[in-house]
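User: I'm putting together a small comparison set for a docking exercise, and I want a reference complex before I start. The sequence is below, and the ligand is S-adenosylmethionine. Could you produce the 3D structure with the ligand included, as structure tokens?
Assistant: Of course. I'll restate your input first, then give the structure tokens for the complex.
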Amino acid sequence: MLQINPDIQAYARDHTTPEPELMQELIEVSDQNLEYIDMLSGRVVGRLLNMLVKMTGSRRILEIGMFTGYSALMMAEALPDDGKLITCDLNEKYASIARSFFERSQHGHKIEVRMGEALETLKTLEGPFDFIFVDADKGNYPNYYRETLPMLKRGGVMVIDNVFLAENVLAPNDEKAEAVDQLNTLIAEDDSVEQVMLTERDGLTIARKL
Ligand SMILES: C[S@@+](CC[C@H](N)C(=O)[O-])C[C@H]1O[C@@H](n2cnc3c(N)ncnc32)[C@H](O)[C@@H]1O
């Protein structure tokens, strides 16, 4: 993670609209049952996703990397009642926690979980999606971008998390860092999108398809 002053991070979090109570419980249950929950995007990113979904009027969302369902539920909350979010993961332990919260949420019916290697799942999906959130295995980031951009509608938004990979993109020295750096270059050189890279947490890119 980036070494941003933890006090200012806490300050930003404290001045961001809190999650609904159920989501706070999701964080607690994830924390109690799993060794690490730093994969969970957290309040600031979650609220940003929620707002972007609302502001773009998105109705159909694709998420790659569900974990225990935090970001999926934050986005689903912003969808209209007949909206749909398809989320991909391959870890049953994470998915069982996610499903238990989807069942309890009034927005859970909008979420469809697809288990398996995300690249395989993507082959079974058809666009257009209004909104795509990429937050899974970093080594596949360029593949996820190439495979999902054609499924994003014009004017649609793709958000990609961890685009700094703990600053390793500055001097990539392993496959993951090289893949994330490659994705960042792909996006920067792609005339079919406009994008902003934010320094929130581990880096977040918001790309809009032209
Ligand atoms: C960073 S976490 C997702 C966090 C979630 N978006 C959130 O904000 O709470 C990444 C997830 O991607 C999943 N994942 C990793 N490799 C995958 C793959 N090849 N296909 C599908 N899911 C994968 C992991 O099991 C993990 O749950």
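The chain has one domain: 37-209. The CA atoms of residues 156 and 204 lie 16 Å apart.
User: Thanks, that's exactly what I needed.
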